[in-house]
Structure formats: structure tokens, C-alpha cells
């Protein structure tokens, strides 16, 4: 199987980038996108050339580190699937791959296909956590959580922080990511005490690092966790709830 790869090459954040074309003649349908990059890099190293830098870790669709743009789409042509789980057999007649780093103002390029996604970390630092008294852990049944509430919280907690939603959004918004964190923690007893402060902190961080959400909806189609647009709606809902409760106080 012959694959033509047009990969973005950029040596460091301050250098201009460019595309370089490569051809693999020994690709197979079973290969994932990262397997293709591995095969290409094996050849480049053997030839004494610089390998293409890219992020990966678990390669099981859990860690969220592998995100790249494939033919102008975050992760690749298969919806709601991370880059490491995109296999050539899913690409149909596509034999030309344009590989770029995730394109978003909030994600500066570090090198080649590697971007700095610390803007997402700053959202978590702002409010994606709960404050609990240190000490002995309470019994698991001490604070009962209903089945439906637990399932809802787990659905939103499934976000792997890959950043594809930001790259897919024409505005570079991170509302799907932030909404998943807000609604996950708001659903559980441990997160309710700081619910208002969390909404203010996270929405403030969104305004500083990301663009505004215009509900285009592209984010939900690329999310590997299948998080829906109700997470986006949750951002405004949590912010409005905080504003009204503050006025009432």
C-alpha cells in the first residue's frame, strides 16, 4: 500500500515551518496513523535525517496526547476517534495524508507535530478540582450518589484533554472541554461547595486563553470521548447560575 505523507516540519517555536513530502511503499491497512509515523521515522533515522516529532503515550485512546491534524481535520477522517486509533483501513480511498500540528492560537507549535497544550492545564488549575479536608478517606457509601447522577458525571469525566475540540472550532474555543469539567464536578456532592467559584474561575480562564463559542458544533464531532454539545451549554448555564446566586446573596 503506497501512502504519500505531507508532514509539517518546524524545528522550534521561533522558526518558520514548512511541509515536506514523503512516500511509504510498505504501509498496510492495519497500520494506525502513529504506526505510519513510526515507519516513516524508522526510515528517516536510517537515512541519517531528522525524524518527525510527534506526541504519543498510551496508544489506546486514553491519554489524549496524540492529537494532530489529518487532512485539515483533528485526529483524522473517522469521527470521535483519537489519532492513535485511526487506521488506514478506515481512510477509504485516501492515500495522501497532510499531517499538521493542532491548529489553534492557544496551542503554539513546539516542534513539527508537537504543540504546547498548557492552556488546557490552566483551565484545570483555575477550577477543575475540588477542595477536601485531608485525612482518612471516608467510606465509599458515606455520601450516596444515585446511579443516573454517577453515570452523567462519568460521561463528562471521560474527556481526555486532547485539544481536538479547540482545533476544530473556527474560533478556537474550549467550551466543550471546560463544560465537561464543570458539569462533571457539579453533579457530584464533593464538587458542589465550590460550584460558583469554579464557574467564575474557569470561564475567566477561557476568556483569557481561548476564543468565544459560537455553537458551530464541530467540536462534538471530533471529540474521542463522544462528549455532546450539552457540555458547551453547561458553561453558560454554570456562569449564569453563579451570577444570579451572587445577586441573591
What is the radius of gyration computed over CA atoms, rounded to a whole number of angstroms? 20 Å
CATH top-level class of the largest domain:
Mainly Alpha
Number of folding domains? Answer: 2
Give the CATH superfamily of the largest domain. Alpha-helical ferredoxin
Strand percentage lies at 5-15%
Largest sheet: 5 strands, mixed
GO biological process, one term: respiratory electron transport chain
Cofactor: [4Fe-4S] cluster; [3Fe-4S] cluster; [2Fe-2S] cluster
Enzyme class: oxidoreductase
Keywords: 2Fe-2S, 3Fe-4S, 4Fe-4S, Iron, Iron-sulfur, Metal-binding, Oxidoreductase, Tricarboxylic acid cycle
Give an overview of the whole structure:
- The termini are far apart.
- By secondary structure, the protein is an alpha+beta fold.
- The chain contains nine helices and seven strands; from the N terminus they run ββαβββββαααααααα.
- The model has no long low-confidence stretch (mean pLDDT 93).
- It has a five-stranded mixed β-sheet with strand order 2-1-5-3-4. A two-stranded antiparallel sheet has the order 6-7.
- It has two domains: 3-111, Roll (Ubiquitin-like (UB roll)); 118-248, Orthogonal Bundle (Fumarate Reductase Iron-sulfur Protein, Chain B, domain 2), CATH 1.10.1060.10.
- The radius of gyration is 20 Å and the shape is elongated.
- A hairpin with a 2-residue loop joins β3 and β4.
Amino acid at each position: 500500500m503506497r501512502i504519500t505523507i505531507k508532514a509539517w516540519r518546524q524545528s522550534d517555536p521561533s522558526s518558520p515551518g514548512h511541509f515536506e513530502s514523503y512516500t511509504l511503499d510498505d504501509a498496510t491497512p492495519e497500520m494506525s496513523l502513529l504506526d505510519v509515523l513510526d515507519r516513516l521515522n524508522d526510515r528517516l533515522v536510517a537515512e541519517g535525517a531528522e525524524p518527525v516529532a510527534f506526541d504519543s503515550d498510551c496508544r489506546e485512546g486514553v491519554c489524549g496526547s496524540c492529537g494532530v491534524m489529518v487532512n485539515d481535520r483533528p485526529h483524522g477522517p473517522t469521527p470521535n476517534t483519537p489519532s492513535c486509533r485511526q487506521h488506514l483501513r478506515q481512510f477509504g480511498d485516501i492515500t495522501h495524508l497532510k499531517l499538521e500540528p493542532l491548529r489553534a492560537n492557544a496551542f503554539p507549535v513546539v516542534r513539527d507535530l508537537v504543540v504546547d497544550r498548557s492552556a488546557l492545564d490552566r483551565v484545570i488549575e483555575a477550577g477543575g478540582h475540588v477542595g477536601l479536608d485531608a485525612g482518612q478517606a471516608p467510606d465509599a457509601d458515606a455520601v450516596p450518589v444515585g446511579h443516573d447522577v454517577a453515570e452523567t458525571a462519568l460521561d463528562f469525566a471521560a474527556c481526555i484533554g486532547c485539544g481536538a475540540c479547540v482545533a476544530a472550532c473556527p474560533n478556537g474555543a474550549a467550551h466543550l472541554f471546560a463544560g465537561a469539567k464543570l458539569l462533571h464536578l457539579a453533579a457530584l456532592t464533593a464538587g458542589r461547595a465550590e460550584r460558583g467559584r469554579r464557574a467564575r474561575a474557569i470561564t475567566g480562564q477561557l476568556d483569557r486563553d481561548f476564543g468565544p463559542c459560537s455553537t458551530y458544533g464541530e467540536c462534538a464531532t471530533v471529540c474521542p470521548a463522544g462528549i455532546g454539545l450539552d457540555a458547551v451549554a453547561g458553561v453558560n448555564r454554570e456562569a449564569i447560575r453563579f451570577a444570579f446566586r451572587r445577586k441573591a446573596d
